Amino acid sequence: MSEALHDAARTYIGRPIRRREDQRLMGGRGKFTDDFQFPGMVFAAFVRSPFAHADVRHIDTASALALPGVVGVLTHADIQGKVGDIRPNWVVGDSKVPAHPPLAAGRVRYAGEAVAMVLAATRELAADAAELVAVDYEELPVVVDAEAALLPQAPQLHSNVAGNLIGVYRVKGGSYEDAVKAADRVVAIRLVNQRLIPSPLEPRALCASYDPADERLTFIVPTQVPHMSRRWLSEALGWPEHRIRIVAPDIGGGFGAKMHFYAEEVLVAFASRHFSRPVSWTESRSENHLATTHGRAHVEYVEAAVKDSGKVLGIKVRSIANLGAYLSNMATGIPTVNTASYVTGNYQITSVDVEVNLVTTNTTPVDAYRGAGRPEAAYIVERMMDAVAGALDIDPVELRRRNLVQADQFPYQPHNNARGKWDSGDYQACLDSATELIDYAGWRRRQAALRLQGKYVGIGVTCYLELVGMGLSAMLPKVGFDRGGWESAHIRVHSDGKVTLFSGSMPQGHGHATSYAQIVAQVLQLPMDDVDVVQGDTDRVLAGHGTFNSRSMPVGGSAAYVAAGKILAKARRIAAIMLEAAEENVRYADGEFRAAGGGNAVAFAQVARMAYVASKLPRDVEPGLDERVFYEPTSMGAPNGCHAVVVEVDAETGLVKILDYVAVDDVGVLINPMLCHGQMHGGIAQGIGQALFEEAKYDEAGQLLSGSLLDYGFPRIEQVPRMRTSFHVSPSPTNPLGVKGIGEAGCVGAPPAVVAAVCDALKPFGITHLDMPLTPPKIWRAIDEASRSAA
């Protein structure tokens, strides 16, 4: 951090300041997309295929159009040549891109794919009219399992994707073959990272209003990436970007699912101009399950070459990633770049051989979900470390200690990976803190005694890391990313000294209005109430890339920090003129400029007024206090940590009870510790959900069996334990704030820790691994089968 921050009288960074947003939101004054109303607005409903794979022979819209109040119906024939396909934004290597029309063009490839769009005067009428659209389908063979899709006899989904194989991605470092030769044994395990449904509290919603007089579209959408959404909409519609205004209002959660470009977006926007009416659409919860992107959906075959001493020499992974029926925005990058790059985790594993097969199936498209590949990578290496510990009969914590990257090795370059380094950390300190806080040794003693009483307690301790804060625009095209890595910040000081920050980042509950104001207020030494934060409006914010990959603080926050520094530098120059002092002799603290040695002071507000009056400014000082910054970090940061869990498993029911949960995380400098704890709590809760409850399941016909919240298991509040979260701070050298990013960390660390604890509890039955989710029926069956085999 700069000298100005060290000497600051006002200190905001590092303080647990309450969220400024909460009074408005908790008081019911939030405004979400579905709250927007425009005169003459009509409502959309979509006709979705009930089949996972079928040819569309004919669509009869006459009955729907005859219903009073129906404005119109669109099918592919109505938009052909007027609306472009939905295209991915991240295409890795030579991955094949199948055509994805917004409305099915003769064939549907997953249950829930839209074949028609109905517009009517009310939402209820639109839903009724959609049921009157008659579609003649001819069913085709279906494949939902990614491994089965690669078999020669599997049905083929796309003419340009031979064998349903979108592409193959490889990462190699060192020589795994040599590692095997030097090893005492090879330990193997098969892992499933099940399909998940992000399910934010607010489903997807859209509101489009096209003004024919200005030839401008106002498009309200809860997007994590407003400026990217504008670009994609412009490209799909062929409309100029400057005639599209994206407004992202309050957002009820995103978790990655709201950073993609969906067919409904381009269709609602097109319909507003086509029918000369504002158009609104809010998906139902069942539509959210069917048609909003899913997450994870990997199968991995993993093996490790190890010495009997516990040293892991190399790791080999063969992964099959189910991408669904079409390529969503970042689909090819999540299981490849975002997973394969991190399979060595926190450990000194010098040889790696990873192959990822990208597969298309008759299922909902799969894309980024909180953590986006890094939870899968952590799960791979941590479950493998537990398997190695079991095979060698070494305590799993001790095994980790023998392999951890050490504090004096940073920045650490894993297995000669040219694309990234772990920036800073002390993995040993996090592990030691977590095991001490959970009382690991004490629980091991109690565990043995409890087993004699027929009580099955398990302890899981796992480490994790991830690379976040996507930046480095020059690097992104090398991995197939079609966007930059910078983030924008524009700070305008008004003539009364009040400040507005316009940020290209986008919150979905993150608390940016608080944390960003903390950064700017500390640099400018002003009360936080003097700083407003504006986000989510492409007419007010110059440019941006948005919020994902835990980049809001390391990239967006750093942009605000640098812009504030530029404001302060100019203000100091103006103050020097007003004080008739040399600029280098002007000191600033607590909102006042003074010349060295004392004397008169000028307040920041006086300097701001002079900046706009300009009566005493020389000609080479441009009036105003207004600075724009496009900031990129020097590299990505590597948040890391250690999570420790104690569970009890009821052998008669399979029920899992979490007795204690400890997380020690290193996310760099904490801007607002209260928000950091909250982020960890939320991420851990989602990770527990994956470990114990959640799974999107299809039957052989491609029907989603978990199509509603009645069938998809979220953890209830009583199933989420009281977590003890703490932080070990090692500042990141990649950005001026020293932050690393925290939004995804809990979701990365929790699943392997919880699974490790449950499997540890089940060891007396000879059970060493079960695939997520570890539901009571699954555990009970495993215990029953193990008991029968033993008998």
Describe this structure in words.
This protein is α+β, with helices and mostly antiparallel strands and 791 residues long. It has three domains: 3-30 and 486-631, Aldehyde Oxidoreductase, domain 4, CATH 3.30.365.10; 33-140 and 211-290, Aldehyde oxidase/xanthine dehydrogenase, a/b hammerhead (Aldehyde Oxidoreductase, domain 3, Alpha-Beta Complex), CATH 3.90.1170.50; 295-470 and 635-790, 2-Layer Sandwich (Aldehyde Oxidoreductase, domain 4), CATH 3.30.365. The protein has 21 helices and 26 strands. A seven-stranded mixed sheet has the order 3-5-1-12-9-10-11, with helices on both faces. Strands 7-15-14-13-8 form a five-stranded mixed sheet. The model is unreliable at 1-7 (pLDDT under 50). GO terms for molecular function: iron ion binding; oxidoreductase activity. Residues 27-141 form the Aldehyde oxidase/xanthine dehydrogenase a/b hammerhead domain. It comes from Cupriavidus basilensis OR16.
Q: Largest sheet, if any?
A: 7 strands, mixed
Average pLDDT score: 96
Shape: globular
What is the CATH superfamily label of the largest domain? Answer: Aldehyde oxidase/xanthine dehydrogenase, molybdopterin binding domain
Q: Biggest sheet: strands side by side, in what order?
A: 3-5-1-12-9-10-11
Structural class: alpha+beta
* Proportion of strand residues: 15-25%
Number of domains: 3
Q: What share of the residues lie within helices?
A: 25-40%
CATH structural architecture of the largest domain: 2-Layer Sandwich
Whole-angstrom Rg: 28 Å
Return the CATH topology of the largest domain: Aldehyde Oxidoreductase, domain 4
| Count of DSSP H/I helices | 21
Poorly predicted ranges: 1-7
Please report the distance between the alpha carbons of the first and last residues. 65 Å
- Total strands: the figure is 26
CATH class of the largest domain: Alpha Beta
